Known about the structure:
2 copies of one chain form a homodimer.
Chain A: E1 2-7, H1 11-24, E2 35-42, H2 45-59, E3 65-74, E4 82-86, H3 90-103, E5 115-119, H4 124-137, E6 141-145, E7 147-153, E8 159-166
Antiparallel strand pairs in A: 1-2, 1-7, 3-4, 3-6, 4-5, 7-8
Helix pairs in contact in A: 2-3
Amino acid sequence: MKYGIVAFPSKRLQDLANTYRKRYDSHYSKITPHITLKEAFEADDHEINRISQTVASIAQNYGPLAIHASRISSFFPTTNVIYFKIEPTEQLKNLHEDIQQQLNIGQPKHVFIPHITIAQDLTETEHGDIFGQLRMVGVDEQETIDRIHLVYQLEDGSWTTYETFRLTGAK
Amino acid sequence: MKYGIVAFPSKRLQDLANTYRKRYDSHYSKITPHITLKEAFEADDHEINRISQTVASIAQNYGPLAIHASRISSFFPTTNVIYFKIEPTEQLKNLHEDIQQQLNIGQPKHVFIPHITIAQDLTETEHGDIFGQLRMVGVDEQETIDRIHLVYQLEDGSWTTYETFRLTGAK
């Protein structure tokens, strides 16, 4: 089964992201807006118990995540993904690194650039038009996220939460 | 904010339900297949803490839910909803009643008939055709569900998990 680890921002910020996603994001209906902390990986029923315990112990070390969605950016030309840039704090980088090292499942495909995707699978022309508009609108939202989620994927591509972990620590 | 309490069945049973839902269920993209334990209710940030604690204490009393999706049934003529009937065990009835009484938020709109919706918002003709086909196909799946989820709704109608509760008791 395919799992991932994400942080869902507040309803307010998810609603804002969805105003764009419903028009521009091909994954709109598969999962609600989120920050990916660990990209999709394979695990069986046995492994997921160990993984779940590891994530629980990591979550106990971290306090609520202070996040700042500071502007609308794009991964172009690597991919035509447009996103809310989340300022890469030490806290986020450390959390990402702890998850990566302690789970020890595969290498990350990319450098960790915390973000909330709002558009993807656009043609180059669409990307140019839409990014041109959205970067002018921008985003500036600050909040805290007090939990992270271990999610799994169904055959149709949609994601369901397997478990939530409150961030109850001090890091 | 609007909250609800649900139990997600296994990936296997969710995938099976989705083979029908993608064609026949207007809510297909809003939430993955589930058994509703408490219908949508309003709560603010303050109330949800108390509610979350109450659900946690209930979940500690119950063991994993033994469920049996035994046939494909319909709420017609009350509504044109077609569903996997989940056999109404004492365990499910007690869990539903504990949630209802201890949360004490609104009266249930219907008698509790545990089910997984696979079709809704059909015309009467569509309902007749599709139910005629599906009741012959039927369903017969048994499994256990070891956790329940408190979920909240975004403005676009989609649901995100707020918290998961493992069923770690003996009831």
